Hints:
Layout: E1 4-6, E2 9-15, H1 17-34, E3 41-46, H2 50-59, E4 65-75, E5 78-87, E6 97-105, H3 109-120, E7 125-133, E8 146-150, E9 156-157, E10 173-176
Parallel strand pairs: 3-4, 3-6, 6-7, 7-8
Antiparallel strand pairs: 1-2, 2-10, 4-5, 9-10
Helix pairs in contact: 1-2
The structure holds 1-O-pyrophosphono-5-O-phosphono-alpha-D-ribofuranose (PRP) and hypoxanthine (HPA).
Amino acid sequence: xxxxxxxxxxxxxxxxxxxxxxxxxxxxxxxxxxxxxxxxxxxxxxxxxxxxxxxxxxxxxxxxxxxxxxxxxxxxxxxxxxxxxxxxxxxxxxxxxxxxxxxxxxxxxxxxxxxxxxxxxxxxxxxxxxxxxxxxxxxxxxxxxxxxxxxxxxxxxxxxxxxxxxxxxxxxxxxxxxx
Length: 179
Ligand SMILES: O=P(O)(O)OC[C@H]1O[C@H](OP(=O)(O)OP(=O)(O)O)[C@H](O)[C@@H]1O
Ligand code: HPA
């Protein structure tokens, strides 16, 4: 794995694809066990979560459905603090067991708003599976129920995570190089 550069910023290798896949398999096994006999609805938060959602959803061993919502709050490497719904939900969520799939919980702003919204829609339960979690960046009292990797508060890209729309197609995860 070599360094990569986007918009003049250099990123160094951080988490390998094989390590990511191994962790996704473990989370899928946990979900398979926790939701046995239920038919959960996975809700993928576009855009960043799509590679994680595809791999996680295909690894669970129970009947399940998947749907998508598109939320946006980041510009460059920082949050705007405002979560914009770019594409909404069409499903009736009443009585459903929902598992939100996120690529990252950073300040927690996106997940806090989304989970509150989903609970207000009459869901039976709402849990969050996030590939990455930055506990030291949290601005709200939230925490994923299933976490791939807890990481320090550094900007990362790859495996769905972007810098202004780029780098989502990297198979591995990279972190911004320290100067
Ligand atoms: O915990 P937070 O500080 O709210 O950050 C997490 C959110 O930020 C990213 O989305 P972004 O707005 O960059 O949209 P994207 O998925 O289209 O890249 C990521 O996919 C999460 O949804
Ligand atoms: O570290 C990050 N990288 C890319 N997108 C993000 N959205 C929240 N945090 C991040």
